[in-house]
Amino acid sequence: ITWKQGKLLGQGAYGSVHMGMKGDGTLLAVKRLDLSSDKGRHVFDTYNMEKTLLEKLKHPNIVRYIASKVVSKSLAVIWMEYVPGGSVANILQAFGAMSEDILRHYTRQILQGLHYLHSNAVIHRDIKPGNILVTVSGVVKLSDFGSSLRVTSTLQKGSGGLKAVQPVGTPNYIAPEVVRAKNERDYTYNIDIWSLGITAIEMITAELPFQEYTNHMALIWNIGRLSKDKPNAPKPPVPPRSMSEEGRDFILKCLEPDPAMRLHSAELLKHEFV
């Protein structure tokens, strides 16, 4: 691909995303991964994993992969479709809290994207407003698969289905079982459903849950202790009372602290809210 780099669209832990233009004038998004840092080996593995995943994923609610290349010892790039609407995080910044109708419209599409991923043995592991892109016509696309996990390679099948370990993700959106996971403790696809519930509350209120914990360790520790019925344990966030009954019920079902009781994407797609 012959291309020219344009403005910075976003910055991540291992690199940046820029607007790009191909030789024929087509606009695209270019993820640049820095291989020169002390985490270079890990960044290279992340690049390979993300590229391998994106090559196989084809769905209207998943950002479209174009190509990728290791350009030099210090740089790898992934070219993807450019989504000019930006992310849900950008939209919240620009317009504030969303109406319930917009929340419903976006949530249905996020769920469809998640259901496709989960059906293809992929856990996203970092669902949040910054990783959910929106086209100018309101089509939602999940992006940033740098934390994702392909369930076949790294995992063993346990009695409770497919399992994964390693706490990753952005702290406020992490499911309680991810915090509690030791090497022998596990989690599965519906950690993405918890993150969707937190994201939905943020979309409808323009406020991120758990902001009362200013200390990172206190935040993680308390998320790991969340429970609906244990005395003295912190409770999961609740949707605003101003929401419709089905909207509140949907979010509460996503934010079920017990992963065994939390619904999966296929079940939630049948919920009356979406």
Automatic annotation (TrEMBL):
The keyword Nuclease does not apply. SUPFAM superfamilies: Protein kinase-like (PK-like). Coiled coil: none annotated. It comes from the Eukaryota. Keywords: ATP-binding, Kinase, Nucleotide-binding, Serine/threonine-protein kinase, Transferase. Gene3D superfamilies: Transferase(Phosphotransferase) domain 1 (1.10.510.10). PROSITE patterns: PROTEIN_KINASE_ATP (PS00107), PROTEIN_KINASE_DOM (PS50011), PROTEIN_KINASE_ST (PS00108). ATP binds at residue 31. GO terms for molecular function: ATP binding; protein serine/threonine kinase activity. Residues 3-274 form the Protein kinase domain. Belongs to the protein kinase superfamily. This is Protein kinase domain-containing protein. It comes from Guillardia theta (strain CCMP2712).
